[in-house]
Design goal:
Layout lengths: L2 E2 L4 E4 L3 E7 L9 E4 L3 E6 L2 E6 L10 E5 L2 E7 L17 H72 L2 H39 L7 H4 L2 H24 L11 H14 L27 H15 L16 H14 L2 H14 L4 H13 L3 H14 L8 H18 L2 H14 L4 H22 L7
Parallel strand pairs: 1-6
Antiparallel strand pairs: 2-3, 3-8, 4-5, 5-6, 7-8
Helix pairs in contact: 1-8, 2-4, 7-8, 8-9, 9-10, 9-11, 10-11, 11-12, 12-13
Amino acid sequence: MPIIIKDYEWTESETRIDLILPQKGIKSNNIDVMVTNFYIKVNYSPYFFDLHLKCEINDRKARVVMANNKITFHLMKLEPTLWETLVNPLAKDSAKRRELVKSAYEYHENKVKCDTESKANVKAEQNRMALRTAMDQESGEKDRIEAVKQAERDKVSLEMDEWQNLDDDERERQYLKSIKTQNQFDNTETTESGTIEEDAALVSTDCPEQSSKAPMLETTPNLHVSLAEERARKFEKIKHNLANPLTSGKIKKSGKKEEKKEEKSVWQSSGPRKQSEITVSFTPRYFPSAARESTAADEEAWYEKNVRAQTKLKPKDEDTKEDERNPVWLCDKAGVFYKMGNFPAAINAYSEAMKISPALPKLYINRASCYIVLNLYEDAVVDCTRALDLLTPPVEANRLSRVRTLAKRGSAYCQLGSLSKALDDYELASKLSPDNESLRQDLDILRAKMGENKLLSEQPPISVS
């Protein structure tokens, strides 16, 4: 039987009540407190205290302080008035007291439920805003890169327009200006080569043994002559291109090319092709199962179920963008976040997609991967189990998805220490994919680990004397 506490103190003003209870040396984390608008309960074994208040209080503003071996309640009155007595007179009757306790507990349950829903809504809104912020950042970066590219395109386009708007004389002047600049550069090189020739002549005069190098320097004038001829040919070619822009770059080099051009013109002058019809026949959908073991009905059921889940869209509203209504788009966006290492944003994106299409298995499979990376193995097990429930009927089209899901859940079970459950999942996954070498290796490691644990458990305890 609990020990009822009756030695308490209380004081009041028109707006506030202070209630003091003895803590009896019990630690604060072992004390259970409940405050409603008409009821106060304190339970710290083996002590118990409850009180039905005379008038209503604002339980949202109530504060409880545990210090100096005392439990102090600071209660704010709903209406500013003096009570003169603390306890409700109706609580003296046992039947009325039970009704008051029942109503107090119902009020407390409703308040807790409302608070939980409010917190969940706030958290969902925060996750949604975080997801929207991450998406806006990514789209902003894409827009910035696209703006840089477009600026470069506009710059090149403007330069091309300016060049095309020039007349032939201006183009020739610009070309002659570039030729003049090139000639100045060539003259500089010629001056330097002349200095080299003079130095070589001095060397040959002083040292007769090196006079054999003189013939090499005599070929320099011929080189400059050939360069001048080459520049003249280029100039004539550019003048020809400017005078005939439609035929520029098309220089006839041999009689064979002229013959080919004539043949091409003859071929192009031929009449249009004759009209004909092509018959296209479509084959029925192929299923990999043998005819005697046909699962065509299950395959069609899975196909329709998967398509229905992927094409489900969120109803339109003002706060949701057009892309965010599509669960497949949200799933792809979550995959981008996962590759970037932003696992919380990926989880938020998968969760938003689940609200739109809760029957899409890959959402749970991929979110389980995020949970495993963040060491949230219990949540990963829940998501994998839900995904396996959705991967029905079991057909060839979803076999690999079931293998991956079983492997993920088995990995999560291993981290949680449930090796027997992990072994069941890995064995089933290995049966579904017998050629998977990675699964076989993980299964061997798990069996070896379970064998070691069994040997350790069978060893007799060591006695210490």
